[in-house]
Every structure is written in C-alpha cells, then in structure tokens.
Write a structure and sequence with these properties.
By secondary structure, this protein is α+β, with helices and mostly antiparallel strands. It is built from four helices and five strands, in the order H-H-H-E-E-H-E-E-E. It has two domains: about 70 residues; about 100 residues, Ribosomal protein S6/Translation elongation factor EF1B (Alpha-Beta Plaits). Helix 3 packs antiparallel against helix 4.
Length: about 220
Amino acid sequence: MDFSVDGLKKLSLKIKALIVLLICLLLGYFYYMSFFQAILAKQMALGTKLTEMQQQIAEKEKVVAQLGRYIREIDLLQESFKLALLKLPNAREIAGLLASVVLSGEEAGVNFLLFEPAAPPKPAAPPKPTDAKAPPAKPADAKAPPAKPAVPEKFYDEIPIRVQITGSFHNTVSFFAKIAKLSRIVNVEGIAMGDAKDLKGKGLIVRTSCTVKTYMFVDKKS
C-alpha cells in the first residue's frame, strides 16, 4: 500500500474514513491511558474522601448538639445549687433558725418538753508537720484490689434536734406545717406519737417525739 500523499488521495472514501476512525481511536486510547485514567482515579479518591468528611461533619454536628444540651443541663444544675445554698444557713444563722423553730411551736400552741440540738461538728484539724521521713513506698501488688473512687466533699453538715412536744393533734400538725414553711431547709424525721390523753379543760393531748433536722452550709475556703 502506498502511504504517500498521492497514494492516500487515490484511496476510496470508505478506506479514508476507516483510516480517520482508526487514528481517532488510537488518539483516544493514548489520551485515556495518559490523562483521563489518572483524572478518573483522582476523582474517585476525592469522592471517597468527600464522603468520609461528610460523615465526620455529621458526627461532629451530633456531638455539638449534645454538648449544647449538656451545657444547658449544667446551667440548670448550677442554678438549682445556688437556690439550695440560699436555703442553707451558715454557722452564724443557726441560732436564729433554732429560735424560729421554737417560735413556730409556740404559735402552733404546743409545749416543748425537750429541745436538744446537737452541736455543729467541728472541722477536722489539719495534719501537723513532722520531721520524720516517710517510709519508702511498697511496690504495688498486682493482686491488690483497685483503689476506691474519691468521695466528694460534703458542702453541708447535718444538725439534728431532738424534740418532744405535747399538744392536741391539730396543734402538732400545725407545728410541723409551720416549720416546713420556714425559709431554710428543715426536715422532720422519726415522728412517734403516744396515746392521746384527755386532760380537763385541754381536750385530747398527744405527746410527740421526733427529730427536727436542719443543714448548715460549710465553707471549705474558711
């Protein structure tokens, strides 16, 4: 076959079309092998990376949404804690609170046979410094049980008050209702009522024993 220009001109139109088609196929093949295949592989890698990033973004958005909810819950707990502190008397206010309990009983019409508050617990004394050297630490035992988690410090102390009163059932219930309405936290526990006795001029009188418990705020910084 003559591949000169004149020879190509003499070829039939059908053969010329086949030659052009063959050349196009060869060019397309070389383009695919040299450029398009690399571009396609890069595009697929970018698509996979985009999908992974979208998944990470969705997960982080969930975390952010939960974080906002946790922050709101913490804010609510802090507000509740502040309100609770307002209802806890400090050491200077305990005497006034006890006087309010006695006044509530007098207003309710009960008589006190016993009103014995426990002394507020004294703070623990700090450890004294010592010049003695501490003994060397023993090697950890592999079989030793795991250490117990630290117990958080209490920010309040309980002050129980042993109380014995006499009065009608109505007056006794009125006394409990009055101390429940005090501005500070006061709980009544261990209520024990004796048999009602009919006293002349006073009606049925009940002797009641209980523990009135209040709570004192402890300032760890002081």
